[in-house]
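User: For my dataset I need records formatted as: sequence, then structure tokens, nothing else. Please produce one.
Assistant:
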Amino acid sequence: MCARASLDEFGAVTTAWQGTRSGTDTIAARARIGQRGHGIIGRERPARVRRRWGFAATGVRLRPARACDSIRNDKVATVVCFSGGVQAIPGSLEPPKPMNQDLQGKTAVVTGGSKGIGYAVADSLAAAGINVMISARNETEVQQAARTLSARNPGTVEGVVCDVRKHEDVKGMISATVERFGTLDVLVNNAGVGKFAPMGELTPDDWHQVMQTNMDGVFFCCHEAIPHLRKHDDSWIINIASLAGKNPFPGGAAYNASKFALVGFSEALMLDVRQHGIRVNYIMPGSVATHFNDHTPSEEDAWKIQPEDIAELVMQLVTFPSRSLPSRIEIRPTKPPRK
């Protein structure tokens, strides 16, 4: 596999990986290739992490976009920071190519796009000139959001009523998108619900609503979108998961189950479609200041991740060099309240 490398292939080198955000901040890490390296470089933590935003992306997995059968005799490794260590992936001696910034004319579908994370993602995509179809169950809300977003951005934004739990609704949404814009390049599965109660109090209806929205809806959207996404050589499926997909908590049986399932689904889906030019990523946010679970955001939510922060991650993904695949991103508030 590409991620396996010996000391002879890499050499005893010291290398660093740096990533910048809006030119204002840097996450820097330095690590030394260890003996008999297998892509894992010791347990050294990032040498310096500056956080000026209110969130910290601490667990990023980076893979070659397409797997290969053997390793080239490269001498340079990409070093990727993640929680608990540093991972090296064989790189190329060629200088990195610039990110693809030509997004004009591309098309995206964003489910749950009338508010919160979905609204912010649609706003950022449209600002880059991407045409966006947003969906929600409330017709008034989704049409108002589409008008507002379309009026302030170069990309066209349209809205469609869609209950992602219903396969026919999803088929209609994808068909309407392709008929309107002629293509589909990006699918953002954002629609989700949460029902929280101890198991003895959780009703079957609550369970079905969570699982059908958070998992069935993602399956339906991917199933209908993939035939269109495969027509291009650089398409994206981005699933909005949650840290609840790795951290169970009391009263979260239904929500945890749905997000654990989404994580596994996303990992398997990535393996299914990566050779067809479709990159799959899932973002795992912690607390986000949204209307989720009937919450009304206020000044008290200032410490939380903001929807715009998730939108920026999405934009970084869709402009990422096509040779590489950031497949999983964990993001947390930098300073949650002390308990």
